[in-house]
Amino acid sequence: MRVLFYVFILVIIAAIQAQLISVHVIFRHGARAPVLNVTSEEAKSYFYRGLGQLTDGGIEQAKLIGKVLKDRYVNSFVDSRMLPTQLLFRSSPVERCLMTLQTVGSTMFTNATPPVQTMPRPDDFLLVPKLDCSFQIDEWALFFNLTDEERNKARKNPWFISDKALRKATSKSVTLQEKSEENLPALILEKEAGLAVPAWFNEEAYKESLHVFYSALSVMASVGEYKSAKGIRIKAGLLLDKIFNDIQEKIRCHEKKSVNRISCDQKKLQIFSSHDLLILPLLEALGIREEVLGKELPPEFLSAIVIETMLVDNVPFVKIFYRGNPREITLRDVTGLVRNCPPKQPLCPADLFTSCCGEFITADPKSECYEEPSKQSLNEWAMTPISWILFGISIVLIFLLIVMSYLVIRYKNRSVVTIKKVCLEN
Hints:
Belongs to the histidine acid phosphatase family. Helix content is 52%, strand content 11%. It is an alpha/beta fold and 426 residues long.
């Protein structure tokens, strides 16, 4: 009897017509070389493209996710001939992100590579997390009890704070507390690449290093123990705002389409290539960071968030997926875990999803990050008790001045009238 019930449910689900109307994919770039330096000549030879650049392994990772996306969306959702009007491929201007997205695009479409859009790093508030906002320096000063000298260092080089968090986490680790001077980020990448590393950097040290490295990332990403709603908003708020607006616009378009038969194919597949410092706050805003990453672990290379918007019997719903491993070919459905979405349900009503994260959304992160001097001065100015006393005295003096002026004018007018009266009597 129970089997028949489940069969009945499956028949009902199969009968429901679901129409995919938009897809947003956000991923971290593929495997890269260490950003600052390497620890051996072997590593220098392996990372031959240079510090911070995409590796051959990263290119292969990009090809794999390109194949995953091709199998899922090309032909069935977008035209296999690669129509630029249907697509938006947007990347951070950093070369490893650009190379990753270009490789993904060329894998998805064999006859032509989609055009990749980007913009200069200082102007890119969509995919380049900003770390030099003045409020962040103030938050870090509280987290780490910074001296004035350290605040100045952080202002000139925000990664000074990351190094401070890394050392703090290392000192608390039983396995790594005597290795605070070691280049842990480089050793992690070298071990993952299969290169020779020091004997002490065994599997236990490697796993502990991932937690330590997360601590350095979390302070820059404004998540975890360093969580800051404003920090998340500056880093991921504009992208969230764009995605939610895109979804709402697509839904409105399809509502009109049913009446006017217009096309809603514009930019219906959007793919974004960015950094771990964007993936972390984005996951935090959606409320799924710990669920998909673990409590204190960083996102892996080419970890991806996939957001599908669909119409089910003309009612808009959203499904959210996560891909956590660069070798995975399946997507994990996390819809029921997302903030504001009904738990343990396969679909999330679009209106609930697009209203999930108000405190983390912004349409203008630049003005929030870099306040104009006049506005900043106004915000910093506050009325102290002495200020209120002086203000009150000023009001009283102004009032007395007005009264005295009135009395003087009135006295003069009476004097003139008296003189005229005397003259007339004479």
